[in-house]
From TrEMBL:
Protein name as it appears in the record: DDE Tnp4 domain-containing protein
Domain DDE Tnp4: from-to ranges: 3-161
Gene from which the chain derives: RvY_08585-1
Organism listed in the record: Ramazzottius varieornatus (Water bear)
Main subcellular location of this protein, as a coarse class: nucleus
InterPro entries: HARBI1-like, HARBI1_dom
One annotated Gene Ontology cellular component of this protein: nucleus
Similarity comment: family membership: Belongs to the HARBI1 family.
Cofactor(s) for this UniProt protein: a divalent metal cation
Lineage: Eukaryota, Metazoa, Ecdysozoa, Tardigrada, Eutardigrada
Length: 196
């Protein structure tokens, strides 16, 4: 399952601050996350400012550039309607401008979202375990502080995966117990090609 999430920022960045303003009406850094059905985060591409569109973030990820290496025929990710259906992404249908969707498309979207909801739960569990990700208090004013926010988020994802069931820790570490083994790509996005 594939989704974009926003790492919300407590403060407006001092440089290029408006570029961090997202469609969720808050400042943040975009992260594209892939998780499995066990809520283990398998891949994260993070670093674009909050105003970046889902497909722009996806198309700049190493995952999108290496589709033939990462996906066998018949393998795909489920994504919401902000994404476009490709050979490796199956997106839900967008609601037509007239507002009436065919019964087949509605049924498809129902089953699609019933499965894809796990990534929403996973993002919720991550932010529940690490409340700092609900409103990150790092003041971004240059490339280094932007990178610090990205690395903080990556560290939280690594810890999330470690805290899943059958990890290195016992039950006292978390009330959110799922199965999996720690694994994450340390891929980070180029920051729109701009210097701070």
């Amino acid at each position: 399952m594939l989704d974009r999430t926003l790492v919300s920022l407590e403060y407006k960045p001092t440089k290029h601050g408006d570029d961090y303003w997202s469609h969720k009406s808050q400042y943040g850094i975009s992260a594209m996350v892939v998780c499995d059905d066990k809520r283990k985060m398998r891949y994260m591409f993070i670093g674009f400012r909050g105003s970046a569109h889902d497909m722009r973030v996806d198309s700049n990820s190493s995952m999108a550039r290496q589709v033939s290496k990462l996906f066998s025929p018949g393998e795909y990710l489920l994504a919401d309607s902000a994404y476009t259906t490709t050979t490796h992404i199956i997106a839900s249908y967008k609601k037509p401008a007239a507002g009436v969707m065919s019964p087949n498309n509605e049924r498809f979207n129902f089953y699609h979202s019933s499965t894809r909801i796990k990534i929403e739960y996973t993002n919720g569990i991550l932010q529940g375990r690490f409340p700092s990700l609900q409103s990150l208090r790092i003041k971004i004013h240059d490339k280094q502080t932007h990178r610090a926010a990205v690395e903080w988020t990556q560290a939280c994802v690594v810890l999330h995966n470690m805290l899943l069931k059958d990890s290195y820790f016992d039950d006292n570490w978390t009330k959110y117990r799922e199965s999996g083994i720690p694994e994450i790509s340390h891929d980070a996005a180029v920051v729109d090609g701009k210097d701070f």
